[in-house]
Design brief:
This protein is α/β, with parallel strands linked by helices. Helix content is 38%, strand content 16%. It has eight helices and nine strands. The chain has helices at 14-23, 42-49, 64-77, 94-99, 123-131, 167-196, 201-208, 229-235; strands at 3-8, 29-36, 54-56, 82-85, 104-108, 136-137, 140-143, 153-156, 159-160. The strands form two sheets. The chain has a seven-stranded mixed sheet with strand order 3-2-1-4-5-7-8, with helices on both faces. It has a two-stranded antiparallel sheet with strand order 6-9. Helix 6 crosses helix 7. The longest helix has 30 residues, at 167-196. The model has no long low-confidence stretch (mean pLDDT 92). The chain binds 5-O-phosphono-beta-D-ribofuranosylamine. 5-O-phosphono-beta-D-ribofuranosylamine (GRF) is lined by residues 9, 11-15, 86-87, 107-109, 121, 139, 175, 178.
Length: 239
């Protein structure tokens, strides 16, 4: 059975696009709904272009109860199983987090717990990485809880910081890895969720957490020109 995924996005939606493309020919999951807090988000255009229902649910200046109710209604109407945040800059309402425990993932463009938290998104993250003089960065996929960027880490992938990097070149290198890492992570969770068949999803997730490949997390750290697709899929036990 195909797991139904909702993607929440505030911006351009390149990760959303990677998810749409990835699940086009994989029956394990499908993108069933896209939600944005921004009426003009590129992500909503991408959803519509792919024939996926797209909802604008405003957050700013609205009571949290109203946002929660609208969001839960939309998820229920679309019979959503799992949620993937992809550049969604709002806090997920606590009731929703509870209702979808172990069923919401986020991708962050740095190696958490460093360079995360409220206000740390977009260009700011990469600026902070460069300011700190880090030589390694990379995306983190984690479960979502009631706080920004603090849920349990599912996977990370190292990306080198090069001498002449600017925030823009670094963001681009990390993003290209995100586009491989995130679909693999969502595919992994969809598989775990399907196998749990409504039983204890938390236990199934604990059991299935991806192990570091060859017992090392940071391997294959070269110039990182191309994302290591086979390595990433191996990490999740896919293929
Ligand atoms: C990505 O860098 C992601 O890690 C972060 O927000 C950005 C979204 O980019 N959470 P896009 O809208 O998917 O292109």
């Amino acid at each position: 059975m195909s797991e139904r995924i909702a993607v929440f996005a505030s911006g351009g939606g390149t990760n959303l696009q990677a998810l749409i493309d990835h699940f086009q020919d994989r029956p394990v999951a499908e993108i069933a709904l896209v939600i944005s807090d921004q009426a003009d988000a590129g992500a909503l255009d991408r959803a519509r272009a792919a024939g996926i229902p797209a909802h604008h649910i405003p957050v700013r200046t609205r009571p949290i109860a109203a946002v929660t109710a609208d969001t839960l209604d939309a998820l229920e109407a679309a019979r959503v199983d799992l949620v993937a945040l992809a550049g969604y800059v709002r806090l997920v309402p606590p009731d929703l987090v509870r209702r979808f425990s172990h069923r919401i993932l986020n991708i962050h463009p740095a190696l958490l717990p460093a360079f995360g938290g409220k206000g740390m998104y977009g260009r700011r993250v990469h600026e902070a990485v460069l300011d700190a003089g880090c030589r390694i960065t990379g995306p983190t996929v984690h479960f979502v809880d009631e706080r920004y960027d603090e849920g349990r880490i599912v996977a990370q992938w190292p990306v080198p910081v090069l001498d002449d990097d600017t925030p823009a070149t670094l963001a681009d290198r990390v993003l290209r890895v995100e586009h491989v890492l995130y679909p693999a992570a969502v595919e992994w969770l969809a598989g775990v969720f399907a196998a749990a068949e409504g039983d204890d999803v938390a236990a199934a997730v604990r059991e299935a957490m991806p192990l570091p490949v060859d017992d090392r997390v940071c391997f294959c750290l070269n110039e990182g020109v191309e994302p290591d697709r086979p390595g990433i899929r191996r990490m999740f036990g896919l293929d």
